[in-house]
Design goal:
By secondary structure, this protein is of the alpha/beta class. About 40% of the residues lie in helices and about 20% in strands.
Length: about 325
């Protein structure tokens, strides 16, 4: 039986790009063949509620509720609650729609009842009709904090309130040293045939996952195939501040720069066709390269790219990772 048809795929994801490819993978693979591990370094409390932006983006995307215009939130949502909160004196720079508020209210309620974030995530996803397993990277709190030219900023302060404008000097993942992989993540690490790095920000979405003790070592030692899709296309990020942060941290803003971030963790880097000319340089970093169309504007694009990634994983597996 081929790995494509029969093995477990572990997808590491965060942000809109990660959710897009995860949707494609979920359309191609049955639930028992896919575990999606999501970054929780972005989690923060707003209005007394536990908000998990990347988990929400993933959940809304796989349930068909996501807003295709923004990539986050619920399509057609209203913002009456936020407007009233502003009128009452609350800070409302973090946009939360009315139906989105329901997600955070219910999550916070269950967490306060003693459920883990994994349990809560599974319950909420199931309620929205999702069959595939979505799990947080950890049930323990890990918070991404950026050292910038205007001081230390939380992830949401930097990304949403300040629109990623401050210069980034360093990034820390507070709490990571004490965290453990979530049960679903640990199980997938131990049994997956292939690992897929979705086209997520290497610093803000993937690195927090890798910062959880034991994760990087497990992926490095993984005997199956490891495939990454570059979030950098044509010398910049498809969306978000990945390119800007790469430059500010002294990395090359290119698919070669992405390859250097994944040395030892990845066997194949999938790049967009317009970056096919950097093939040899990617190879020089110690991994194979494959070029295809990686921009995902439609569901068909997401499914097509997912098939390419899975077929590559199968081919390299047969060749011997």
């Amino acid at each position: 039986m081929s790995k494509y048809s029969g093995g477990l795929t572990l997808a590491l994801a965060g942000g809109v790009g990660g959710a897009k490819l995860a949707l494609g993978l979920a359309r191609v693979l049955p639930p028992e063949r896919l575990t999606i591990v999501v970054n929780t370094g972005d989690d923060e409390e707003f209005h007394g509620l536990h908000v998990s932006p990347d988990l929400d983006t993933m959940t809304y995307t796989l349930s068909g509720l996501y807003n295709p215009e923004t990539g986050w939130g619920v399509a057609g949502d209203s913002f009456e609650t936020l407007a009233m909160l502003k009128r009452l004196g609350s800070e409302t720079w973090f946009n939360l729609g009315d139906r989105d508020f329901a997600m955070h209210i219910r999550r916070t309620e269950m967490l306060r009842q003693g459920m883990t974030l994994s349990e809560v995530t599974g319950e909420l996803a199931g309620r929205l009709g999702i069959k595939h397993q979505i799990v947080p990277m950890s049930d323990d709190p890990v918070r991404t904090v950026l050292e910038t030219d205007i001081g230390t900023l939380s992830m949401q302060d930097y990304f949403v309130l300040r629109r990623a404008e401050p210069r980034v000097n360093a990034i820390n993942y507070l709490g990571a040293e004490q965290a453990r992989p979530s049960p679903g993540f640990a199980a997938a690490l131990a049994s997956a045939d292939s690992i897929v790095f979705c086209p997520s920000n290497p610093y803000l979405s993937v690195a927090p996952i890798l910062a959880v003790p034991g994760v990087r070592d497990a992926i490095t030692a993984h005997s199956g195939c490891r495939v990454a899709v570059s979030p950098i296309v044509g010398g910049d990020a498809v969306r978000g501040p990945a390119g800007k942060i790469m430059a500010e941290l002294g990395a090359e803003v290119s698919v070669v720069g992405v390859a250097r971030e994944y040395v030892g963790l990845c066997d194949v880097l999938v790049v967009d066709r317009q970056d096919a000319g950097r093939w040899e340089q990617v190879l020089s970093e110690g991994m194979e390269a494959a070029a295809t169309d990686t921009i995902m504007n439609t569901d068909d694009d997401k499914i097509r790219l997912a098939r390419v990634v899975l077929e590559l994983a199968e081919q390299v597996e047969y060749a011997g990772c």
